[in-house]
Design goal:
The protein is α/β, with parallel strands linked by helices. The chain contains 7 helices and 6 strands, in the order αβββαααααβββα. It has helices spanning 6-10, 42-48, 54-57, 65-72, 81-99, 101-108, 138-153; strands at residues 12-13, 29-34, 37-41, 114-115, 118-119, 128-129. The chain has a two-stranded parallel ribbon. The longest helix has 19 residues, at 81-99. It starts with 5 loop residues before the first helix and ends in a 7-residue tail after the last helix.
């Protein structure tokens, strides 16, 4: 993937669905409170923010990740979405790891490895398409930023 040497590949986590690293995915079931509502997972919290009203966000609170993604494709998109989506994702990812200390420990336990949300569904914005090596990897970059913030705050790595 991405023409990496074996050494570089060892210093990089590229599969957020691989056992042990699934917690890095927005589809991982870990409750998160954002904007006054509690969601089952980050995907639901993120997709809900596309909505224009609090009432429209409510169905997302109990939705599984895949259902949330489908619902998010059908909502009336808030007009400023393209300008705010990266900041919202960062806030939600930060909330996931600050509200779930065990997950914060697991994120810290990734050390200094690069986090790359490799995927086969062609997402070149949040991740990297493993077939082509193309992608902006915004989710991976956000995860690494949050990991550094946790490290700076003195959080402890989870050894489990």
């Amino acid at each position: 993937m991405m023409n990496m040497t074996d050494r570089e590949a060892q210093e990089c986590i590229t599969d957020f669905h691989e056992e042990g690293y699934e917690f890095l995915s927005n589809f991982y079931e870990a409750g998160v409170t954002y904007g006054g509502l509690t969601y089952r997972n980050n995907e639901a919290a993120f997709q809900a923010q596309k909505c224009m009203s609090e009432e429209e966000k409510l169905p997302f609170t109990a939705a599984a990740p895949a259902k949330s993604k489908r619902l998010g494709r059908r909502v009336r998109l808030r007009p400023d979405w393209e300008q705010v989506k990266f900041g919202i994702m960062e806030e939600i990812v930060r909330a996931k790891f600050t509200q779930n200390p065990k997950l914060a420990g697991r994120l810290l336990a990734t050390g200094d490895k690069a986090l790359v949300e490799g995927n086969r569904w062609g997402d070149k914005c949040w991740g990297v398409d493993v077939r082509t090596g193309e992608g902006e990897n915004h989710l991976g970059k956000i995860l690494m930023k949050v990991r550094e913030e946790l490290r700076t705050r003195g959080e402890k790595a989870d050894e489990n």
